[in-house]
Each structure stands twice: as structure tokens, then as C-alpha cells.
Amino acid sequence: MVCCSPVAGTRSLFLQSIRAPLDWDDVRATTTEITRARIFEAIASVVSQRGYAAATIADVVKAAGVSRRTFYEHFDDKEDCFVEAYRTGCENGIAQIDAALRALDDPDWRTRLRVSLETYAALLTAEPHFARVLLIEVLGAGARALAMRERILAIYVDHYRRLHALAREEDAQLSEVPDDFLRGLVGGIAELVQKCLLDRPEEEVAERLGALTPTLVDFAMTILTRGREGGGGRSGAELASLDGRRRRAA
Length: 250
What we know:
Blueprint: H1 24-50, H2 57-64, H3 68-74, H4 78-102, H5 109-126, H6 128-135, H7 143-170, H8 179-199, H9 202-224, H10 236-249
Helix pairs in contact: 1-2, 1-4, 1-6, 4-5, 4-7, 5-6, 5-7, 5-9, 7-8, 8-9
């Protein structure tokens, strides 16, 4: 058995979508949702510590503090539980990013880009177990998990597509960015964060992710402007001036 921290008392991304009950039918539904959230939290913790292949249902029910019977009332097997935990965590994380953007007061597209990536990094910092599930363990969890990953990646690609559309509304001279570039942007962000998770002890991940965020913003800015902006936080005008000096020197 894996030794896991108790689920109770920890901050949980999986509890985000649970609403307060309004009547007795809602109470029963909420109880079910809370049980599922506990199991999601448990499987994320177990898988992040042991890896998907080595994690067992026995590990999960022990970490969640539920019986095997309760587990099977909600999920067919480990794969079913993992895929639902991945989907729920991702959707709740995306909802937090959307909420952070809605809270902004008439932002330009650069502000929306920065806040979305800062919120994304903050979510991963607050949920280190789910961060490993999101970026590493899902890759070895089977066809259903990979299909769900593709669905989530498509949501992020659409997010950057909409940001690019806003950028072009503000600057009509910006060129179109192909969807393949946007997919590369999403994959590149995931790769940079994944490297941080793999290279650093867990206690250093939060600090490293905070330091990485400006790089993520710069990288995204470069892709979305086709190189006109980005590059160490330089503005488009600064990059144009630098490019002109390079051309004259050549």
C-alpha cells in the first residue's frame, strides 16, 4: 500500500464544482459529488506518487477513506476513475481561468494572456499532485485518457485562437496564426511545465513555476504575434528597432 496524506483538510481542485444544496434532493446529489471528489483527490495523489501503472484501487480507497463497494458504485475500474478525475480537474481548472478573466476590467489581449497563464501556473502550484496527473501520468494511462487529453488540449487551442483574434482586432497588421502553431504553443507550454515538475523536488516546484511564468507569457506572445512581440519582454517597437539594427549590421 502507498502511504498517502489524508484527503480531508486539503485544498482540492475537485471540490470547486460542488454547489451548496438547495433542497433535500440536492443534499443527496451533493453527497454523491463530495464522495466522487474525495476519490478523485485520492487517485490524483496515489498516481502522482506511484505512477498510473502501479496505483491500485486498494491504494485509492484507502487514501479516500471509502470502501471498495463505494468506489465501484461510482466507477467501473481504475481507468474509468482516472479519466473522470482528469476531466473534472481540467474542467474546473479551465473554469478558474475563465473566472479570472471575467474579473478583469476591460483588459487588452496581452493582459488576458498574462492573467490566463498566471492563473494556470498558480493552479498547478496549488495542486502538485494533479499537475503530475495533468502533464505526465496521463500519457501512460491508456487510450481513453489520451482521448480525453486531446479534448482538453483542443479547449486550450481554442483559448489561444480567441486571444489571437482579439490581438488582430487591436492590431490589424498581425498575420494569421495557423492552428498547428497554436497546438504547438499549447504543447510547448505543457513541455516547459512538465520539465519543471520532473527536474525539481516538489518543495521547489512552486518557486520554479513562479519564475517560469514570464517565460510562458513571452513564448505565447511570440507565437501569437508571429515573432513581432516577445523575446525577453521587449515590445513590438523595440523588436522592430533591434531587427533594423541587425539588418544594417549585416
